[in-house]
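Long-time lurker, first post.

We've been arguing in lab meeting about whether shikimate-3-phosphate would sit comfortably in this protein at all. Half the group thinks yes, half thinks no, and nobody has a model to point at. So I'm putting the question to the forum: if I give you the sequence and the SMILES, can you give me back a predicted structure of the complex? Inputs are below. Any interpretation is welcome too.
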Amino acid sequence: MRLLSTDALQGSIDVPADKSITHRSVMFGAIAKGQTKIKNFLRAQDCLNTLQALKELGVPIYDDGNTITVTGVGFSGLTSARQAINVGNSGTTMRLLLGILAGATFETKLIGDASLNKRPMQRVISPLKQMGATIMGENQQEFPPLIVKGNSHLTPIKYTMPVASAQVKSAILFAALQAEGQTKIIEKELSRNHTEEMIAQFGGKIHIDGKIISLYGPQILEGQDITIPGDISSAAFFLVAGAIVPNSEVILRNVGMNPTRIGIIDVMKQMGAHLQITDKDQVNQSATCIIKSSSLKATIIKGALIPRLIDELPIIALLATQAQGTTIIKDAQELKVKETNRIDVTAWQLQKMGANIKATEDGLVIHGKTPLHGAKVSSHGDHRIGMMLQIAALISEDSVELEKPEAIAISYPNFFQDVKQLVKRRR
Ligand SMILES: O=C(O)C1=C[C@@H](OP(=O)(O)O)[C@@H](O)[C@H](O)C1
Ligand SMILES: C=C(OP(=O)(O)O)C(=O)O
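Top reply:
Settle the argument with this. Predicted structure of the protein with shikimate-3-phosphate, as tokens:
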């Protein structure tokens, strides 16, 4: 596919719904008692896989095209699926479902696509096994396909997390809601807290003290009405586009502003971006972002900041190619076990376009500012790499061809329409 390029972006877009919160809204709706009504559900492949998975586990879900109504069955009301559940490309779906199914006495086989088959699952298998669940990969491996057989008498654990991962934390919390007694999780670094927030929103009790989370189980949650805010991880592509394309002013409405997710805003401000945040909505944790073409300087991104912008690192790497000086990203080894090895793929694809970027063991080193030129690039089936490359193409001197653009529908089905809407002058 030939990508668009331009020398001006102008206009506004409504940011699509948050993927992490969408997954969780259906999961919490399913394991609660009573009805959950979800507005602004993200109709992207990953989230549709979560919806389908819960239907296959016996949860009544009705979609009127606007609102999704989930009739909660409680953990004990889930029923055995007729066949293996295919969660496609979605790591969140597989890992969180393992936590939910840790207390179900029937057996479930979870399968996914070729990319998911390479993603590490030991990080969830290990704590869930300690709690009493049985989870097996084929040939004793940690990789999907996985078979999970739960245990109706799960035991609570005290668990110090070896990785900063919201998915691992969430899987343990779903199991903890079913276990008798106190579970304590000690986070390595603070990661996105949507699961903790939703436990409270659905009427549960959870105690958080910095990196220590404690929860007494078992708990029965109650269905809620939820409106999903926009996804900062999707907005990120246009935040960067607005900053690096000359003559630009882009307004992004309904951007989720959960503090555990807004690392990219801190980084862009630090780099000198003309970024303004207005119309803050405290209830919905969202705001409007206005970004203008910016003259940028390099920065260092590491440590506790990494989990707050983990999915934004490929697009931040592109931003750094347009900043004066050397940007260093470190402590980001988790990027190697996403949909692709995002350290290597980001460096490799941007190098093809003339960027001065090098992969390191745990991150990237980017020397700016370099002009980008045309090339044949590939998403490698990774939605975030595909979107990053379209934004790179906007400032490319000549034409860029993208292989596997269809991957973008995993999190942002209307991405190319939104790009088109903002492009004022095609080159
Ligand atoms: O919990 C979530 O919704 C997510 C957590 C992160 O993964 P890890 O928990 O593996 O860091 C993130 O990369 C992913 O896109 C979504
Ligand atoms: C890593 C991602 O998602 P998941 O882990 O759910 O596949 C992502 O969306 O960038």
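For your lab meeting: The two ends are 16 Å apart (CA to CA). Residues 19-31 form the longest helix (13 residues). Whichever side wins, do check it experimentally.
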